[in-house]
Amino acid sequence: MNKIKTIALLIGVIFIVNACRKDKPSINQDPSIIISNNRGVYITNEGNFQFGNAKVSYYDIANATVNEDLFQQTNNRPLGDVCQSMNIFNDKIYIVVNNSGKIEVVDKKTFKSIGTISNLQSPRYFLPVSNAKAYVTDLYSNSISIVDLTSNVKTGSILCKGWTEELLLSYGNAFVTNMLTDKVYVINTATDSIEDSIQVGYASNSIREDKYGMIWVLSSGSNQLNKLASLCKINPISRQVEKTLFFTNPSDEPFKLNINFTKDTLYYINKSIYRFPITSSSITNNVFINKETANFYAIGIEPYTGIVYVADAIDYVQKGIIYRYKPDGTLINSFKAAIIPGNFYFD
After folding, report:
1. What Å distances lie between residue 147 and 84, 156, 185, 219, 323, CA to CA?
2. Buried b (16+ CB within 10 A) or exposed e, 106-142
3. Per-residue DSSP letters for 82-141?
4. Which of 22, 27, 174, 309 has a Cα-to-Cα distance from 168 of 20 to 30 A?
C-alpha cells in the first residue's frame, strides 16, 4: 500500500459491504492456468486491509488469459493480508505480505510455497543485495531488515528512522527511499551500515536507474508541511544530486515511478499517467494517459515491447482493471485482476 496507504485502508473498510460492479473483462479468465512457458506478468493485489484477501494474479501475454489467485490455487491457503510487492530472484519469488508481517517464498516454476520469512513488522519492499542476503524496508519498525536467503531467516536490522520504501542496488550500495524524510539513505551492503544520506524531496517513494546508471527518485512532498513534490537525478558514484525538478501544484502527490525497457523514459502517476524522457528539463505537459474517471494505482512496462500496463483500483473494493497501452498511448486491451492491483513483475 502507499498513498498512499491511508486511502486504501479507509475506503476498503468503509465500503467493503458495497456490491461490486459487474463489468465483464475483455479477455478470457481461465482458473486452470497457473504459469505457462509463455511470457507473462505477475500482478500483486493488495486486497482490503485486515480482510486477508491479498492475491497474486498472472496474465499470460500470448494467450491473453489471467489467473486471479496463483497462491491460493497452488497452495490451498490464502496468501495473507495486504500483498505489497514481490521480487523474482534465482528461480524463486519473494512475496511481501505487509500486514501479515511476512514474506512468502515460492518456487518460480510451480508457485509452490518453499518457505516463509517471518518476524517482520510491516514489510514493504524486498531487495536481494547478494546471492545470500536481502534487505527489506518497513513501514513502522524504524529499521531495514537483513534476511539470509539460504535459511529464509531474518538475521538482523539496520536502524533507519521513518517509513522506508523502495530501494535500489547500485555499485555495491543500496539506495533507500524514505516517506517521512527528505533523504535517500545509502547502505554499504558489505558492512550492512548506513554510510551516507542524500537530500532529495520530502517523502521519497520510488526509485529507478536509467541507461546511464543515474538514479531517479520521485518524492510526493507534503501539502500539509508545505513541501512540493519533486523528481531528482542522483549520480550514484559522486552521490550528488545532478537535477531537481519541482512540481508546481501543492496538491500534486506523484508516486509509482517506473522506467521503460530501454531505460530512457520515466513514467509516474499523478492522478493521470505521465511520462518523462530522461533528457527532458521539464515535468509539465507530459501526460501519457488522462485520468478521466479512473483511479490509477500502478504502472508496469513490458520488456522488449514497451507496452505499458496501468492498474485502475476503481473504488478499492471491487476487482481492479488492468489496461494495456502501446507506447504511443493506444489502448490494446483490458482485463480484471483482484482487489487493489498495486505492482507488476514481468517474467
Report:
1. 18, 7, 19, 27, 35
2. beeeebebebebeebebbbbbbbbeeebbbbbbbebe
3. -EEEEEEETTEEEEEETTTTEEEEEETTT--EEEEE---SSEEEEEESSSSEEEEEESSS
4. 309
- For the stretch 141-178, pLDDT in tens is 999 999 999 999 999 999 999 999 999 999 999 999 99
What pLDDT shows up at residue 11?
Answer: 37
Confidence of residue 37 (pLDDT cuts 50, 70, 90): low
Show the cell assigned to 293. 474517471
Model pLDDT for residues 232-271, shown as the tens digit of each residue: 999 999 999 999 999 999 999 999 999 999 999 999 999 9
Helical residues (DSSP H) of the chain, grouped into ranges: 4-14, 70-75
Residues 6 or more apart whose Cβ sits within 8 Å of residue 14: none
Helix (H) or strand (E) run with residue 168 in it: strand 164-170
Separation of alpha carbons 330 and 215, rounded Å: 29
Helix-strand-coil split of the chain, %, nearest 5 = 5, 50, 45
CA 197, 203, 208, 212 torsion-angle sign: negative
- Taking the CA atoms of residue 29, residue 32, residue 35 and residue 36 in that order, the dihedral angle to the nearest 10 degrees is -90
Per-residue model confidence as pLDDT tens digits over 65-80:
999 999 999 999 999 9
Q: State the cell numbers at 73.
A: 490455487
User: Is residue 38 very low, low, confident or very high in pLDDT (cuts 50, 70, 90)?
Assistant: confident
- The type of residue at 207 is I
Considering only CA atoms, which of 58, 124, 73, 138 is closest in space to residue 95? 124
Q: Determine the residue type at 30.
A: D
Residues 6+ apart with CB under 8 A from 144: 135, 136, 137, 138, 157, 158, 160, 164, 167, 176, 187
- Do the beta carbons of residue 199 and residue 217 sit within 8 Å? no
Amino acid at 17: V
